């Protein structure tokens, strides 16, 4: 090699080393960054009802550099409220050999965990994952599940207390629950403990996908129920929330939920985490796992705050005047 070629080779080598030290991508690393990742999502509910959550999840992924149609293949699967479809959906996602799967509630997480202990599972919102034995601890999950945990088991009693404060006439509350959802047993226990000191009678009402909501509402009214509280972290109840709101309002029953979306639909009140923010944050966990972090070592996060949302329009239609104490504490008032 003559002196000129040797000198050019040395210059090229020097530039390459400098770029590497400076953190600039070489051709091979740039190709790695552009490699498409394959992400799955499983949801029991209606895709239209969860559109905002999906939008915020995708927005969070974009902030981490993952763009659908460019370097992100996003395999969404919604059962559209048909629970019998969930096992087949779970098996289909596993067969796709995805890089990770986002689970959207307690039932979907439990189902996926029963199918795989190897594919990383990112929880978007799951109550008491330690108590359910989905993870070993919040600080160190220890398996293939990480993400975000709800704290509804800790605030269930406060939900009832807020309901009673806002509507003092709610002395007999129907608590809508899904008897096949294990966390609802915990929620019911906490609410029952909170009911006695504030002199509230509870009537637990089991709801299934086949329950005639209108007929059930008539039965509740006949028993003297004067308020309805729908338990959270259940896709079936979430999917039927508009029907629950409608049946309660038509019969003059104030309604309380664990999600603000139900108040947007006409429910009276809600108290709980902001699910849009939760889904946005789930993208952080997806990014960590895709970059090589082990779910077993990624601490599970819990909500840092809960939001109280009230619907003044619904209150007026029910002939209610909400206390100033509630309105001042509300994070959002729909009027």
Strand order of the largest sheet: 7-6-8-9-10-11-12
Strand content: 15-25%
CATH homologous superfamily of the largest domain - what is it?
Response regulator
- CATH class category label of the largest domain: Alpha Beta
Class by alpha and beta content: alpha/beta
User: What is the CATH T-level topology of the largest domain?
Assistant: Rossmann fold
Describe what you observe in this structure.
By secondary structure, the protein is of the alpha/beta class. It folds into 2 domains: 36-150 and 275-297, 3-Layer(aba) Sandwich (Rossmann fold), CATH 3.40.50; 153-272 and 307-334, Rossmann fold. 44% of the residues lie in helices and 19% in strands. The protein has helices at residues 3-22, 27-33, 51-63, 86-95, 106-115, 152-166, 182-195, 213-222, 235-239, 241-250, 260-264, 275-290, 312-317, 324-329; strands at residues 37-43, 72-78, 100-103, 121-127, 145-150, 172-177, 201-206, 227-230, 255-257, 269-272, 307-311, 332-334. It has a 7-stranded mixed β-sheet with strand order 7-6-8-9-10-11-12, sandwiched between helices. Strands 2-1-3-4-5 form a 5-stranded parallel β-sheet, sandwiched between helices. Strand 6 (172-177), helix 7 (182-195) and strand 7 (201-206) form a beta-alpha-beta unit. Helix 3 crosses helix 12 (275-290). The longest helix has 20 residues, at 3-22. The N and C termini lie far apart (81 Å). Residues 1-33 have low confidence and may be disordered.
Short description:
This protein is an alpha/beta fold and 335 residues long.
SSE order and pairing:
Elements: H1 3-22, H2 27-33, E1 37-43, H3 51-63, E2 72-78, H4 86-95, E3 100-103, H5 106-115, E4 121-127, E5 145-150, H6 152-166, E6 172-177, H7 182-195, E7 201-206, H8 213-222, E8 227-230, H9 235-239, H10 241-250, E9 255-257, H11 260-264, E10 269-272, H12 275-290, E11 307-311, H13 312-317, H14 324-329, E12 332-334
Parallel strand pairs: 1-2, 1-3, 3-4, 4-5, 6-7, 6-8, 8-9, 9-10, 11-12
Antiparallel strand pairs: 10-11
Helix pairs in contact: 3-12, 4-5, 6-7
């Amino acid at each position: 090699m003559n002196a000129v070629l040797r000198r050019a080779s040395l210059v090229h080598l020097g530039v390459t080393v400098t770029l590497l030290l400076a953190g600039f991508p070489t051709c091979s690393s740039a190709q790695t960054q552009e490699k498409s990742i394959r992400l799955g999502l499983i949801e029991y509910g209606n895709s239209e009802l969860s559109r905002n959550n999906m939008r915020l999840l995708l927005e969070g992924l974009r902030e981490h550099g993952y763009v659908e149609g460019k370097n992100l293949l996003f395999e969404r699967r919604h059962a559209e409220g048909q629970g019998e479809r969930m096992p087949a959906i779970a098996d289909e996602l596993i067969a796709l050999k995805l890089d990770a799967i986002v689970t959207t509630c307690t039932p979907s997480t439990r189902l996926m965990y029963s199918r795989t202990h190897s594919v990383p599972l990112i929880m978007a919102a799951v109550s008491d994952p330690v108590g359910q034995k989905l993870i070993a601890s919040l600080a160190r999950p220890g398996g293939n599940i990480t993400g975000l945990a709800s704290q509804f088991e800790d605030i269930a009693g406060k939900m009832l207390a807020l309901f009673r404060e806002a509507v003092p006439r709610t002395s007999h509350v129907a608590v809508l629950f899904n008897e096949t959802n294990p966390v609802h047993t915990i929620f019911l226990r906490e609410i029952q403990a909170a009911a006695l000191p504030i002199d509230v009678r509870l009537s637990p009402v089991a709801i299934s996908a086949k329950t005639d909501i209108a007929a059930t509402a008539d039965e509740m009214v006949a028993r003297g129920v004067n308020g309805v509280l729908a338990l959270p972290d259940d896709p079936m109840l979430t999917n039927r929330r508009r029907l629950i709101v409608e049946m309660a309002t038509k019969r003059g029953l104030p309604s309380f939920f664990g999600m603000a979306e139900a108040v947007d639909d006409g429910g009276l009140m809600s108290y709980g985490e902001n699910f849009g923010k939760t889904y946005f944050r789930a993208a952080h966990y997806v990014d960590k796992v895709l970059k090589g972090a082990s779910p077993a070592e990624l601490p599970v996060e819990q909500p840092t705050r809960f939001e109280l949302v009230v619907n003044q329009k619904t209150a007026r239609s029910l002939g209610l005047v909400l206390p100033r104490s509630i309105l001042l504490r509300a994070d959002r008032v729909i009027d």
